[in-house]
Amino acid sequence: MEKAQLSLADFRFLQFKEGDRRAFEYYFKEYYNSIVGFGIQFIRDKDKAGSIAQDAFIKLWENREKVQKINGIRSFLYTSVKTDCLNLIRHNKVVRKYESKLLHERESSLHTEILNSLNFDSVTFSELESLIEKSIEELPDKCKLVFVKKRFENKKNKEIADELGITLKAVEANITRATKFLKLRLSHYVLHIFIYCFLQF
Fold this sequence. Notes:
mainly alpha, Rna Polymerase Sigma Factor, Chain: A, rod-shaped
């Protein structure tokens, strides 16, 4: 078919395939915003979606001779954006997993370095755990029960009061009493306790 007999749309498409940059610019303006919006649906990042959209147009230009129909332009762009967005999502998942692993390894290494630098060993912490348990056992029964529910079962004061049938003030008083007693008994292990608690998180 002669160019003179082509519709404007067909003529523009033919010009595009032959390397006419004005025809390419037309398609860029026609589809850019829509494919950026399409990309945002996948990655929720306008800047990255814009970058992926630009890459899609570069690929379109480089492969223009392979596009057989006008509708193929739109299909090419959307397919390219979808593929790149999914690849980015998969890549980010791998990166996050790797970073999480490195962070965990670094934390473990840091814990070891702290212990080594302070000359703490497993015996020290074993003794500390034993002393804490023994000190809690020495609390009066009601005081111990309130303290355990508060510190180890993570219950609120109101819940403890309801369970034990006592007032909120009684709960608070028992917690204060237990805390003061344990601070006194463990006063020589303040630094050890700090490190011990730090390593639990």
